[in-house]
Amino acid sequence: MIPTVDWPWPDWELARLPLPALPDLPVPDLPGSPAQWAILLSAAAGLFGLALSRRSSRPAAWVAIGCSGLVFAAMVWQLYAVAGASEPRISSTIGALSFGELTVPLELSASRLSALVAAVVSMVAFFVQIFARWYLWFDPRYRQFSASVSIFTAAMLLVVLSSDVVLTLIGWEVMGWCSFLLIGHLSAKDSANRAAGKALLVTRLADVGFVLGLIALAAGAGTTSIPAIVEHWSSAGPSAGLSLAMVGVVLGVLGKSAQLPFQDWLPDAMEGPTPASALIHAATMVAAGTVVLAQLLPLLQASGPARVLLALLVAATIVLAALLAFAQPDIKRLLAWSTVSQVGLMLAALTVVPAGDGPDAAILHLVSHAWFKALLFLTVGWMGVLTGGTVVRFVVSSTKRYRSLRRPMGIGLLALAGVPPMVGFVSKELVLAQAEHGVQAGMGTAATIVLAAVGASVPLTAAYCMRAWLILDRGPRRRHVPAPRPTADRQIIDDFFSEPDVVEEAIGIEEADSAISSSARSVVALLGFFSVVGGVLAFTPQLDLALTVNLQLLAAALLLMALAALAVWVASRGVGSRDAAARLPANLSLATERGLGFDRLYHAAVVRPVLALAHAVQWADREVLDAYVRAAVPTARLLGSALETTHPRRPAPALVLVLGGVVVLAIIGVVLS
User: Fold this and answer.
1) Which of 96, 376, 475, 514 is the most buried (most CB within 10 A)?
2) In this structure, what is the dihedral angle of CA atoms 20, 530, 113, 290, given to the nearest 10 degrees?
3) Which of 349, 372, 367, 343 is nearest to 300 (CA)?
């Protein structure tokens, strides 16, 4: 019998970097707080960008990009202001309101985590505005797009910095309408209009539960203040009312975050411009649910049914979305399904947090996902301009033909796959450690299912990232590139404020660089930088991660990633496009492209019953209610005919005398008065 060797696998506690103390900068006594200025500037940029730029896109670019830069600066300043503070920084809006026994303070709150998320949201929005100025250069509706992005940013910042459920609802609903505008930006396309309507209807259906849940929480606490709501319901203990309210909130979060059973709208949202996809997927909309549940985390922990429901649905979504991402025939749809899976990881981390701990692991993955997913979408947008599309047959060998795409695309896919030392590796391993910690804390079967789903996502994510890279990097490393054509007769985009007459498609390395503006290229480079070094954030005092990383589990995850990547590489050999998914059966590929038929399920479960009910109401209105109105005319005619047969046509002499007497008396009364 072979003796087993008991290898020591010590656990690793996260260390704290010995960061230097922040300089004590003088804080100017300015009216308002950074949170107030950020939300107001973003909203004003959306309104004034349309009002002041009716004829040219240049003023719209100045307004949108300039205000976004100021908002980013304000959020960085806020992050500095709350660093080391023990209490959140509270600021008012329009003042407190009172509705009988319900108090509505309408306050904003900047805490350690909310300030971090707000800074990342404003950063991504700023970068998207810069990139969109180049990407939508000749779009006649660029002004509407930039205005929608500004209002979208204001709504997300309102949700992040809100300390009141009324403000949360306002930001939540405004984001839904802005997503409708951004997804349907190319309104001449029927597919874009359909995708925008689908996103609006699906999220609105889920928002019914969200609104009812927040109303129940506020009514029970007698206030709309989020800290007061958490304190009231936490002191009251678990109850049926709390469970019902939190189940409603969870349903709204599942809809906004594109989780089962509402997941199908997000891949269809790829009909919108790529900068809009970067904004929606990276730092707004789908991440809003994680922010709201992080604010209400003690209530989620106290509500067993809501937590279990969320855990089971996001666990299923994590695995299902990763499988669907592998088989997509379009790189943008692959990234969309990866977003569904990654947002599931954020929400899963919240379901396994024991009582007394914070949502730092989920917030860290939100931040890291914002960086590398924005990088991937903007790089794919750049690639789409060069190749003419993002379908697999268009982008094959694109990183070989256009070597400027190679580095940002490689960094983004490595971060998405969770390869060390990328930011995605740090955040995903901490989510895995959080799930393991939840199982050890005895959080039930749901925590075990979440741990299994998070573990399964590791090789699945590596598989679809490897598949994407093999497609993009297919072909010989060296190939003949035609010499660049003279640039005397054409103008090169070098800045987002110039107005060239024509821009030709780039060919080769040199023209791949010249096809993108210097500012947009700088944005991609900065996102790549944060995707590489952003993991350092986990070791700073900005996050309180009291987790222990199981080195044995870490080694197993890395081994599974390597095996998954190797399996995809082997499967791709012999395929012309190096697409491993080409070996899947045609029926399965078609089914995965259509989201496994969830559209038909929506039609059967929602659309057809609603239409049937509408037709029934229409029939009742037409055949029952309107029947009384239509019957009034023949009924009156019938009564008239009956009376005509019983009475003579000529009036009786006595009736004439009575009427004459009445007239005479009336005249006498008028004269005497």
Assistant:
1) 376
2) -160
3) 349
